[in-house]
Design a protein that fits this description.
The chain is an alpha+beta fold. The chain has one domain: 4-Layer Sandwich (Deoxyribonuclease I, Chain A), CATH 3.60.10.10. It has 2 helices and 9 strands. Strands 1, 2, 3, 4, 5, 6 and 9 form a 7-stranded mixed sheet that branches. A two-stranded antiparallel sheet has the order 7-8. The longest helix has 13 residues. The radius of gyration is 15 Å and the shape is globular.
Length: 144
């Protein structure tokens, strides 16, 4: 694993990492925690900046607790969907991830990527479920 960047502020914590897999593939992951009830714009700005550094067809998997309910229409939800769509990303988990029937924990991948399996797993000590996804190795980026 090669850690790329850590971004932190009073609004979010973001970890951007790259995994080398069997010397032939790489997997870029961005893990996000957006603090609840904080301003959306600083988070949106850094997300836009990070996504803009990736070329088309080599976008990272983006996952984490966005604290934006993707199931409930709101300005933040619409803005997030528009940004991710513009970067050719789609959300792949569609079931609520909290006991409050909201989907706050997202997994976003490139639109072209085939998903083999997705589900949520309950976590005993949390009001959130853990989203789970299975991707085929062929969907990973080839190393140079």
């Amino acid at each position: 694993m090669i850690s790329k960047n850590i971004y932190t502020s009073e609004f979010y914590d973001i970890l951007e990492v790259q995994f080398n897999i069997e010397k032939t593939h790489t997997l870029n992951i961005i893990a996000i925690y957006r603090f609840p009830n904080k301003k959306f714009e600083p988070f949106h700005n850094i997300l836009e900046t990070i996504l803009s550094t990736y070329p088309a067809n080599k976008k990272p998997i983006i996952l984490g607790d966005f604290n934006i309910d993707i199931l409930k229409k709101s300005p933040h939800q619409l803005n997030l969907i528009e940004t991710m769509t513009r970067h050719e990303l789609r959300i792949i988990n569609t079931l609520p991830t909290t006991i409050y029937n909201s989907l706050l924990d997202h997994i976003w991948v490139e639109k072209r990527i085939e998903i083999l399996y997705t589900n949520n797993y309950p976590i005993y000590w949390s009001d959130h479920d853990a989203p789970h996804v299975l991707l085929p190795k062929a969907e990973l980026s080839k190393t140079k």
